[in-house]
Amino acid sequence: MVDALGVAVIGFGWMGRVHTQAYARLPHHYPRLPLRPRLITVAEEVPGRAEEAAERFGFASATRDWREVAADPRVRAVSVTAPNFLHREIGVAMAEAGKHLWIEKPVGLTAGDARAVADAVATAGVQGAVGFNYRNAPAVESARELIASGEIGTVTHVRIRLFSDYAAHPDGALTWRYERERGGSGVLGDLASHGADLARFLLGDIAALTADTAIFVPERARPSGATAGHALASGGEPGPVENEDYVSCLLRFASGARGVLEACRVSVGEQNNYGFEVHGTRGAVSWDFRRMNELRVSRGTTYQDQPVSTVYVGPGAGEFAAFQPGAANAMGYDDLKVIEAYRFVRSIAEGTPYGTTLADAVHSATVLDAMAESAESGRWVSL
């Protein structure tokens, strides 16, 4: 027997749409899941946007006030895809209202915000999931297993990169994303949060770090109206960019391994160039998001001039079998969100966490705070 799970989405930009579509696709990929999401309410403060989303995607109701979601007894689970500065207030309120919570990273502006949401979820006894979607890629999960098995020996160092051009255009609108009070730490929260999560997912805890940050586009035009995504706004009143375009960070892991994490949102010529290279004493493994279903692997006993192979992940890797029947059939970005939705709903159905949790968000946010502290002081920071 399949029971209905009333869900709501708060914030309906691009990510709100992705969450909504992920809920809708769950029965297609996971037909045995004992809970089936039912779209109850969409909340969005921009006039008309919630009503449009309700009509397009089939929500039963729409509102401009997210507080109505907390009071709605039909809603058991909530996706929070609103801007960063609202994460803490909305996340805590939903948990206190007894709603299960799927919230986008970075879960607020600081580690304190993430911890407040995590504490509220724990106190309420509800399930909490976080949008660190890249760890859900079957190839990434295979890389983690390969590393843990010792096939590449003892890990010596890792390089994690997250380069994008979404903020490279000088006419990019000065939205909340570029303000310290509403967007937080810029590219740290946008992209480096994923890097911090991947680093811990693959190699374990980070013990210390030192970081450097920069703003390369210091001024942008204010938009004249509501925006979505990364809109352009030429000719508007100029204002200062208050948070980081770029971060580079040296990492020391508790295991003794070393790492480099670099992220930039103004990298001209780079579109979602995300990935990692992990080196060990007997081999290496690397992954590129743009070739999401492949791994580059070197393993053996020759050490010098050791060949590298391309491995296409297949049904035995992670959740691949729920999407494709055989290796080298491509999965895409939205599929990672379906996996995330599945693990969230499964957590609710079984009463035990699957996938990323609010604890993972706290770990990532703690790393981001340490990066900001190090960039300001010029010193190594212990975690």
Automatic annotation (TrEMBL):
<protein>
    <submittedName>
        <fullName>Gfo/Idh/MocA family oxidoreductase</fullName>
    </submittedName>
</protein>
<dbReference type="InterPro" id="IPR055170">
    <property type="entry name" value="GFO_IDH_MocA-like_dom"/>
</dbReference>
<dbReference type="InterPro" id="IPR036291">
    <property type="entry name" value="NAD(P)-bd_dom_sf"/>
</dbReference>
<feature type="domain" description="GFO/IDH/MocA-like oxidoreductase">
    <location>
        <begin position="141"/>
        <end position="285"/>
    </location>
</feature>
<dbReference type="Pfam" id="PF01408">
    <property type="entry name" value="GFO_IDH_MocA"/>
</dbReference>
<dbReference type="Pfam" id="PF22725">
    <property type="entry name" value="GFO_IDH_MocA_C3"/>
</dbReference>
<feature type="domain" description="Gfo/Idh/MocA-like oxidoreductase N-terminal">
    <location>
        <begin position="6"/>
        <end position="132"/>
    </location>
</feature>
<dbReference type="InterPro" id="IPR050463">
    <property type="entry name" value="Gfo/Idh/MocA_oxidrdct_glycsds"/>
</dbReference>
<keyword id="KW-0560">Oxidoreductase</keyword>
<dbReference type="InterPro" id="IPR000683">
    <property type="entry name" value="Gfo/Idh/MocA-like_OxRdtase_N"/>
</dbReference>
